[in-house]
Each structure stands twice: as C-alpha cells, then as structure tokens.
Amino acid sequence: MTAVARTLPTAGGPSRAARWRRKNLTFDKITFAAVFLGIPLVVYAVLVLSPFVQAVYYSLTSWSGFDTNQAFIGLGNYARAFQDDVFVTAVRNSVTLVLVLPIVIIALAIALASLVTIGGASSGPVRGVRGGEFYRVLLFFPYIIPAIAVGIMWGQIYDPSNGLLNGILTSVGLKDFASYPWLGDARTAMAATMFVMVWASVGFYVVIFVAAIKALPAEVFEAARLDGAGRFRIATRITVPMLRANIRTSLIYTGIFSLDAFVFMSALNAGGGPQNSTLVISQELFKTAFTKGQFGYACAMGVVLAAITLLFAGIVFLVDRLTGGAEDLSEE
Amino acid sequence: MTTSQVARAAVLPRAGRTRRSVPTGERVVGGVSQAVLIVCAVVVVLPFLWTIMSSFKTTNQVLNSPFSLPDRLHLENYANAWTQAGIGQFFANTLVVVGGALVLTMVMGSMCAYFLARFRFFGNRAVYLLMVAGLTFPIFLAIVPLFFILKGLGLLGTLPGLAITYSAFALPFTVFFMVPFFRALPASVTEAASLDGAGEWRTFFQVMVPMARPAIATLSILNFVGLWNQFLLPVALNPDQRKYVLTQGMAAFAGTAGYSIDFGALFAAVVMTIVPVLIVYLVFQRALSGSVVIGADK
Questions:
Q1: How many CB pairs below 8 A link A and B?
Q2: Contact at 8 Å (CB) between B144 and A295?
Q3: Contact B276, B228 (CB under 8 A)
C-alpha cells in the first residue's frame, strides 16, 4: 500500500497532478489510491500476471504437481515436446487453424459487412441491401451463445444418421451422405470443425466492420461510384485499404481464438478426433496437466502456444508494414 | 435509421429508375447480394430451430424421425434436464458465480480505469500496458499455475474463488474500454466537485459513476455474456460436480455419451443455456452493438 502511495506524487502538469504533491496527501487520497488502484492491481497481479510468469519457470522443471519435487531440467520439456508425435500433430493442427480461420472469418465478415452497408442498388445514395440492419442483428446471434452449446448443437447436426445436415443432404437426393460421419472421418473432421468456429464467430466481426464502414466518409464511396467503380472494386480497392487498422486488430483476435479452440474441440471431438485430426495444443495441454499430472511438461506446451501466438501477431504486423502500413491511403 | 433516411431510401431509387432503366447486371448483382444474405441467415437460424424442435421430442423420436415435428410438446425433457441432469443446480451456481464476478469486475474495473484515466503518477502508462497485455496472453499458459495459486489460497473449487478468478481475467477488457471513457469526461466536473469540498471518494461515487452510467451499462452487458460463456476456467478450476457451472455441466452431460443419453433432455439443456443470453441480447441489442462499435475504433 505505501509503495503505491509513494509513487503517486510526480512533477506533472499544473492542475490535476498538483493535487498529488506530498503535502496534499490526505487520508482521503491515500485510502482512495490504495483501494482504487491497489485492490484491482493486487487481484490482477496474483491471479493473472503471476501465473504467466510462474508457467515459464515451471516449463523448465519436471514438476508433477502434487509432490514437492520441482527438479530443474532446463529445456528438457521442450526437447521432449518436439519428439512427441502426438504433440507435434497438435501443433500442426493448431497452426493449420491459425493459418486458415482468421483469413476466412475476416474475408467473409468484410464481404457480408459490405453487402449490409454499401451493397445496395448503385443508383441513389450509397446504402446496403434491403434489410441490412436485420441481417446484422441476426448474424451476431451465434457469437453471444455459449460456445459449448454451439459445439453440442453442431455435434448433433453432424450426427451421421440423426443429424440435420445429412437429413438435408439426403432429402435433396445426395444418398451417399445417408450416414456420412462428418466428425468421424479424418478427411472432413477438421473442415467440419472449422465451419462451426466460423459460424460461431463471424457475426461479431460483421458488426465490427459494419461499424467501421459506416464511420468512413460517404463521399469517398460516392466519388468512386461517379468514377465508375463497381461494387466489387469499391469493396477491394476502397473499403479494405481504409479498414486496415480494424483488419489488423481483428486478425490478431481471430488468431488468438483459432489457437485456443478448446471449447469447440471439447464439444465436437473431445478425444482429438479420428487419427488425432482435430487435436490441438490446448487440448493436449489440458490432458497433460489435469489428467496425467505432468505440470512442468504442460507448462512447456503453454509456452509453445504463447510463442506461436506472438509469432502470428508479429507476422500480421510485419505483413501490414511491408504492404504499406498507414501510408497507402494516399496512393489510392 | 431515421424516418427521413427511410423516406430518402424509398424515394430516390425509384426516381433513379425512371430516369434511366436499371441495367440487367445491376439487378443480378442486387439479387445475388440479397440471396447470399438470405442463405447466411438460414444457416444461422436453422440450427436453432432444429434444436428447439428437438428439445420437445422424446429420445426415441430424436433418433428415429429427426426431422418430423414433435407429436406433442414433451415438456418433461425440460423437467428431466433441470432435475436429473442437474441443470437446475448448475443454473443456480452460474447465477452466483456470474453475478458475483460481474459486480466485482465492474467495481474493480471502473475504479482502476478511473484512476488510470484521471490521475498522473509514475508508472501509470506501465500499469495500463500491463493490464492491456492481459488481453492477448493465451489463458492456457496461466491455467496450471493458477490451479495451484487458488489451491494455496484455499479458493480452489469454491464458487467465490471462481467468481474472483473470472473477474481477474475480465479486468483487462473492462479497463481497456473504460479508460478512454473516463478520459473523455470533462475535467471541469471533478474540479467543481473538489472546490465544493468533495473528497476523491465522493467525487467518484456521486459525480463520476452517474456520468459513466452508459459505459458501465454496456460493459456490464458485454461482461455478462463473456462470463456466462466462460468454459476453460470452470473446467480446470472447479472439479466438484455439485458446484459445476452451466457450461461445464453441459459438457459433462453431453460427454456421458453413448446411446444411453437422453437426447431430448440434452437439447432442452442447450436451449436453457442459450435462453438467458438470448434474452439479454435481444433486450440490450442496440446498446450491445453500440459498445462493440466503441471497441472497433481503438
């Protein structure tokens, strides 16, 4: 508490900062600082920050949790991880997810958001297709529903003999799908899972991009249209470049979402799917820690997951910079 | 849409159409756009309708005639899910945990954001960045040490422990969105309050909180949805079945697997998990998408 109070007075600007000079530190102000900043910070430090730091340390030990033996084994867990076929498969699947999902989700979201906002008839004022607002509200629906409920629902939809999907396919004459196991066949399990993840999350990004497009000056679109640009050209040459910052942020969030994927995998194929085709790092980590009790090893997997997340974010920023970053608007 | 916009949208295209005939390509593109959105809407809605329909059938009907309408509304599915599958108990646990976590998150989040937004002190920027960094770390990295920290504090597998952990992980998001909001409030208000003799505490609770009501409301809704849907934290940190929260109980119920499972009750359980968030969404839809818009700008 005193540490917090001591950091408060600074030689800052006149009005507000002046109130925090030492001689003004009344009881009111000290308790205020201690409670307002102190309590949230302590909770955050103990329950959020410290576990991250500890995980990095545990990843260098052979700790199995319930005994006190935390032998320091350096990078031993990491060496083991990359010789572990199951874990390597999990890494490959996670990387596949993070390479595919963000691009699919954001491309689809931008396309739908463009339809909703500027896809309407190209005479008259720039506007969306009829009922755009309704679609925006509707598409957001899946996002607010607990992911586990989404997963269980789709698990039933994909059910080989009683599921909605095969029911629809057979009713339109595709009899080959009468009992096709979408989640039980290694060829389709991952794609089917990805579809569910897109279904669950795309609406959120539609809402984000609708808001971002509406915030753009309408004159830009009107001018482009006067110059003879069609809807597709407007979307690719004007909307996308102007939304660059939103796209970058959204890519990173969808990347984190793709690398987690734990809920969806637990609901659709808890065991990792046929031939581990949908096994992801988060699942393998959870099993290693809470079923096998190998906590040091599990933490090493967590560090690998964090490293992939950072790498992905780094690539997004790098590509953004290489393709022109903030300057490109003047070129358009 | 305001009425004038609606009027404009309704009048202008027709005026345009009379002046020069709409080209065929134009009509095709318009039709395709509308068709794409209709297909998407169906893909979103159909699974829900099918789930709701199935929740009123017996397991036998679900397995043997998955596409026919239920012969009558088998409400016993809901009763079975509520009592036998324990959804009722899980529901009560969830209300306690999410309610507690929501209050904690909003109180701690707005206090912390207010302090970071309105007071200069050494390390302000560092604290803010440390908070925001919490938004990007994969929670999986923290989960193992977190288990043992809660165990050490005697909070593992308790509802209060779960609530405080939920709110700790919801803090970065809350602070991230509240800081710009408090920053935007005019400084003259606090100065006036201070001249009138209000201390920092009174200024916050009697002046700032009422002014921040819109932001607090939208963030409460967003946090409610996020906390209600929380899955990894309870699965890892709440092993006692009597204390399961809804998402966790759902997974366990679905995971009992095999054909022994009561499918009608499973669908009923899914519907009951969805309904609360759906109600919140429909009631607060405008505010909710509005707050997502705030976030999109950052």
A1: 303
A2: yes
A3: yes
Report how far Cα B210 is from the mean position of its chain's Cα atoms. Answer: 23
ipTM of this complex prediction, to 2 decimal places: 0.82
pLDDT (tens digit per residue) in A201-217: 999 999 889 888 888 88
Q: Measured between CB atoms, which of B40, B141, B194 is closest to A112?
A: B40
Tokens coding B142: 């923290």
Q: Tell me how many domains chain B contains.
A: 2
φ, ψ (nearest 5 deg) of residue A72 = -80, 120
What is A81-331's CATH topology? MetI-like fold (1.10.3720)
Distance CA A163, CA A182 (A): 10
Interface test with A, best of B107, B121, B204 (most A CBs within 10 A): B121
Residue environment code for B247-279, b if the CB has 16+ CB neighbours within 10 A, otherwise e? bbbbbebbeeeeeeebbbbbbbbbbbbbebbee
In a shared domain, residues B112 and B164: yes
Spatial contact of B86 and A191, defined as CB atoms under 8 Å apart: no
Residue B256 sits in a domain of what CATH number? Answer: 1.10.3720.10
B254: its two tokens = 């679905």
pLDDT tens for residues B66-114? 777 787 788 888 988 888 888 899 999 999 999 999 999 999 999 999 9
